[in-house]
Each structure stands twice: as C-alpha cells, then as structure tokens.
C-alpha cells in the first residue's frame, strides 16, 4: 500500500471511531442533528485535505469536534445574516455549559437515549443509532436490513424530523425513568448484534461488521453506566456469543454448538465475558436483587463456554437458568429454548410435549427443534416434514445448507 | 416551552357508560385538570359531545356546503382534548400518561406549529 493510501485508511478508521463522539457533542451544543451530521462530514473533508500534509493531530477526536463546531458556527452566522431568526445565533454567544440533566454526563449517552426514544418507531431507533453513533452510512444500514437506500434514508429523515418537530429532548432519563428507557436502548443494541450474528437473509450468513458495532456500542454503554447490571449482562452475552463466531460456519454450513471446535473459541472474549457475569452475580447477591434477562442469558452462555466439550455441559444448571429466565421474560421463544435444554436432561419426549404446545409455527427455530426431537425419537417421516418446514422458514444460507444435510441423514 | 395537543380518542361506549360508573373517571379528570392548572401547564381543554352532533362545513368551493356527520367516519373518534405547555416531548408524554389514566382513554400527543 502506498503511504497516501495508508494515511487515508488511518483517517477513515479514526473518523469511524470518533464519529459518534463528534456528532453527539455538536448535537448537544447546537440542538440540531442535521447540523451535527453535516458539519461532522465537513470536518472529515478538511481532515482528508490537511492531515496528509500536516500530519495526524495528537488528539484527532478533539480536532474533528473543534473543526466541526467552528464550521457549524460559521454556518449559523451566515444564516443569521440571511434571516431574522435569532435563536440559533444566541447559541453561539451562549457558551454556558450544558445543564446536567441525568445521572451520567456524556454526550454520546444522551444521543443514544434520543435515538432510542420510545416515541420513535423501533426500526427507526436501530437505523438512527447505527447512523449517528456507529457512523455507518445510510447505504450500509440499508444493506444490513435489506431495504432500499431511499427507504432507509426516508426512515432516518422522518425520525430526525420527529425529534426536531416533537421536541424530543437530548437527555439521559432521570433515575426513575432510566430502566424503562434503558431497555429500549439495550434492545436496539441486541437487535443489531443478532442481525450480524445470524443474518435473517441475504448472501452473508454472518455480518461481523454489525456484531462488532453492537459490541462497541455495548462497551460505550458499559463505560457510561458501569452500575447497571443489564448493561454488563448484555455486553457479556454478546462477548460470549461472539467468541464462538469463528467456529459457527464451516464450508458455508452452520455448525451447531455441540459440533463446534471448542479449541478455536476466542478465549480472551470468553474470559472477559465470564468476568462480567461474575460481577453481575456478585451485584445481585449484594443487593438481593433479581437479575434481568440479559444477565441470565449471559449466565447461560457462560455455562456453555465453561465446558471443554459438549458432553460435559452442565445441563442442570442451564435448565435452572432458563427457569429463572421464564420468570423475568416468559416468552414462547424462551420456553422453546428451555425445552431444548430440558431434552438433554429429561429426554426428547418430555421436551417435544412442551414444544408441540407452543404457538411458534412462523419461527424457524421451532421447526428445527421439532425436527431434531422427532429424529431422536425415531419418528422419521414427521422429522423430515419438520426439517422441510424449517428450511422454508429461514433465508440464512448457512442454516439452509445445515438443515438440508440433517434432513438427508434422517433414517429410513 | 412548546404547546402540545393531548387528544383523547375512544368509541361510543365511553358515552354509554352509566353516570355512577363513570363518576370516578370524571372526578379523576377534574382533579388532573386542577392540578395542571395550578402547575401552570394548562392552556385549554374540554370534553366533546357525541360524534352524532358533528357537522362538516366545506367552504373551499364557490358554494359553502354543510353536511351532517363527522369529517371521518370511524369507530373511534376524538372525545376531548387538552392543550398544554411543556418544555419537551418527555414532559408532555408524562402529562399525557397522567391524563390518560385519569380519563380512561388513549391520548395522542402532538406538538403545535410554533409559528416560526
């Protein structure tokens, strides 16, 4: 690679890394997402022009923020001359620090809560978060969620217009409202992660860029809200899941947990995940609290990653954790996962009786679970039918290959 | 400060509820009204009569045409509203939640054009 290409790649990396910080800082100061985004973009253009000549500044994030803020002030001044609106101009003169409005002060956190406001449509929350905090382009987000770029651009524009028009505040909710609002934020991050971990459709089975982005957002949240158990829980859950990513697809085929090459699991991520899970457990014990769903799911993954081989998995503990999860998140999907774990403990017939009662026929994993249980019970014809239904219900290429092979192996 | 419309939507069942059953709802709404008046949030508000009292006037053509009935024929319709002052949407949503609880109806929250 040439030196110019090197520095361009370095600028791109820094920009992606600092983008959320720059936009969040400008959004707070100028109260306008469009100005924040446009000026962050202009600061990048200036950096591309100047850094190859002057060298990369020692604090590139600060440089980008200052440059973008100066551009914003110039722009507002120009507009002030054109029209009689003085409100924007007052912001230039008003240099008083922002009023502390929440338990934690960070521009990015404020922006996450704004992007994930319950008054915005759920799909708009994901898109805005990826755009404004992750710095992904509209095109990248559109591709990740398989919609046309114009559709995604409209979705983002509409959400920004609602934030402005309805006066959705740039604020971290107060203590009393924090846990309600935080769950929307965590749901968005987990959604981004899951879309990356098992892409619902498209040519790529795994989207490592999305899982990495979700983990990065999770780390930011954890830095900003170190005492929130569910934040630590979600981060641990993502790390422990991501640690298995390398072994999850082989030769274009999905590899299930019991067949994965455990020696290739990422031990660093697993160690970090386990530390977080232990920290969660200690906090729950100290406070006599009840762990939330992410913490319990993280604990389940901690048990899985604790076993050096599939055979030594502590299924008793996993079923016990699913029992806990059923208390805090009693959904049919959790019940399904619990039944699959229970099959290892009490046998496939017990599990199938539970699975058959669940109203999940639109969900591919339900058909997969039925297919596997029926196969173990020697009910081959029914098993094959269930594999067919599962194949019809998934668009993920690696999963389709896996299910087709499993189906072909069902006896007689 | 911005002004928001809190619009309460419901169907005829609200009007058909016997008064003795509806009284707690009226009382709660009155208490809510007094509270937001005392807090300086209240701008205006009121309950509307049944949808069969509505008429539509169309003055867009050369003749003014008056028709019987509402603009939209729907099962659920606007039954009453408040106009309030709030610093931002979060504050307006909080007030709307209290109003919804008091009057027993779903509340649509919508900002007014601020006349810029």
TrEMBL record, chain A:
Pfam short name (any one): Sigma70_r4_2
Keyword check for Transcription regulation: yes
The RNA polymerase sigma factor 70 region 4 type domain, residue ranges: 113-163
SUPFAM superfamilies for the chain: Sigma2 domain of RNA polymerase sigma factors, Sigma3 and sigma4 domains of RNA polymerase sigma factors
Limits of the DUF6596 domain: 181-279
Domain of life, per lineage: Bacteria
InterPro entries from the UniProt entry: DUF6596, RNA_pol_sigma-70_dom, RNA_pol_sigma70_r2, RNA_pol_sigma70_r4_t2, RNA_pol_sigma_r2, RNA_pol_sigma_r3/r4-like, TPR-like_helical_dom_sf, WH-like_DNA-bd_sf
Residues annotated as domain RNA polymerase sigma-70 region: 16-80
Keywords of the record: Sigma factor, Transcription, Transcription regulation
Family, similarity comment: Belongs to the sigma-70 factor family. ECF subfamily.
UniProt protein name: RNA polymerase sigma-70 factor (ECF subfamily)
Organism: Aeromicrobium panaciterrae
TrEMBL record, chain B:
InterPro entries associated with the record: Dimeric_a/b-barrel, YCII
A Pfam family recorded for this sequence: YCII
The YCII-related domain, residue ranges: 4-111
Homology family: Belongs to the YciI family.
Name of the protein described by the UniProt record: YCII-related domain-containing protein
């Amino acid at each position: 690679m040439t030196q110019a290409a090197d520095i361009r790649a370095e600028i791109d990396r820094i920009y992606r890394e600092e983008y959320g910080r720059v936009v969040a800082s400008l959004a707070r100061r100028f109260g306008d997402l469009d100005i924040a985004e446009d000026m962050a973009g202009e600061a990048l253009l200036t950096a591309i022009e100047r850094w190859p000549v002057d060298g990369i500044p020692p604090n590139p994030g600060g440089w980008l923020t200052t440059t973008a803020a100066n551009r914003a002030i110039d722009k507002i001044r120009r507009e002030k001359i054109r029209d009689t609106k003085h409100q924007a101009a007052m912001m230039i003169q008003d240099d008083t620090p922002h009023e502390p409005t929440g338990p934690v002060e960070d521009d990015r956190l404020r922006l996450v809560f704004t992007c994930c406001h319950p008054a915005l449509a759920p799909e708009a929350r994901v898109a805005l978060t990826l755009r404004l905090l992750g710095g992904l382009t509209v095109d990248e987000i559109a591709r990740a969620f398989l919609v046309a770029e114009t559709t995604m651009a409209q979705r983002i524009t509409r959400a920004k217009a609602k934030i402005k028009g309805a006066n959705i505040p740039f604020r971290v909710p107060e203590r009393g409202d924090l846990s309600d609002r935080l769950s929307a934020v965590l749901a968005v991050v987990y959604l981004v992660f899951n879309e990356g971990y098992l892409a619902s459709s498209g040519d790529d089975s795994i989207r490592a860029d999305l899982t990495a982005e979700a983990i990065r957002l999770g780390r930011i949240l954890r830095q900003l809200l170190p005492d929130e158990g569910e934040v630590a829980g979600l981060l641990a859950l993502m790390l422990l899941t991501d640690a298995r990513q390398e072994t999850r697809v082989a030769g274009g085929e999905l590899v299930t947990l019991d067949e994965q090459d455990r020696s290739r699991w990422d031990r660093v991520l697993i160690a970090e995940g386990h530390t977080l899970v232990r920290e969660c457990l200690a906090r729950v014990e100290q406070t006599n609290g009840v762990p939330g769903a992410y913490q319990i799911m993280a604990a389940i993954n901690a048990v899985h990653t604790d076993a050096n081989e599939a055979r030594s998995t502590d299924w008793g503990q996993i079923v016990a954790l699913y029992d806990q999860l059923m208390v805090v998140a009693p959904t049919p999907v959790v019940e399904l996962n619990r039944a699959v774990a229970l099959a290892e403990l009490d046998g496939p017939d017990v599990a199938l009786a539970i699975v058959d009662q669940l109203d999940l026929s639109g969900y591919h994993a339900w058909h997969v679970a039925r297919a596997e249980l029926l196969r173990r019970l020697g009910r081959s014809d029914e098993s094959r039918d269930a594999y067919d239904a599962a194949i019809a219900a998934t668009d993920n290429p690696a999963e389709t290959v896996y299910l087709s092979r499993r189906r072909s192996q069902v006896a007689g | 400060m911005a002004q928001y419309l809190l619009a309460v939507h419901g169907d005829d069942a609200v009007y058909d509820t016997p008064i003795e059953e509806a009284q707690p709802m009226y009382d709660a709404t009155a208490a809510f009204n007094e509270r937001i008046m005392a807090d300086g949030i209240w701008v205006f508000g009121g309950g509307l009569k049944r949808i069969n009292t509505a008429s539509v006037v169309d003055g867009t053509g050369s003749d003014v045409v008056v028709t019987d009935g509402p603009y939209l024929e729907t099962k659920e319709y606007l039954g009453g509203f408040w106009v309030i002052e709030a610093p931002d949407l979060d504050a307006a949503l909080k007030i709307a939640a209290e109003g919804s609880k008091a009057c027993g109806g779903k509340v649509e929250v919508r900002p007014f054009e601020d006349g810029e």
